[in-house]
Amino acid sequence: MINPKLQDALNKQINAELYSSYLYFSMSAFFEDKNLKGMAHWMKMQAQEEMVHVLKFCDFLNDRGGRVLLDAIDKPPAEWNSPLHAFEEAYKHEQKVTALINDLVDLAVSLKDHAANSFLQWFVDEQVEEEASADEIVQNLKLVGEHPQGLFMLDKDLSSRSAPSLTAADGE
Length: 172
Ligand code: FEO
Description:
- 74% of the residues lie in helices and 0% in strands.
- By secondary structure, it is mainly α.
- Helix 3 packs antiparallel against helix 4 (114-144).
- The mean pLDDT is 96.
């Protein structure tokens, strides 16, 4: 049976991951509106990846005899000043999620919950990737600056991102 404190914290993380998905769906809609189809696609794939994270947390909580309890999801912003601004916000958001994951690890360690600590290490590694991929696009957008041709090329490049598997159990 999982410690109630850890159950609460994991349920809060499920809400944070759902919000992440919601935020990236909103960014996808923003890029669709700007006719930047590649960026819209990238954000849609990112939103789906966040749902995989949700499923992983739910599966773990259920496997440990805990109870998944869903809360209201905050409304995400709908507008950003530019593609660069949107990706900068995505990068900042991932940094916040990394801090949340680190707090969860600290809690699991303090409760001597080795299984939770082991489970959370996947997310520790994942966050390195999550931050790096958002930051890479931020840097690319800074290089592109105001050049429409560069933006067009970058948008095309981002359209090739493949879909994550939506099953939580396959290590995606
Ligand atoms: Fe679920 Fe983007 O962290």
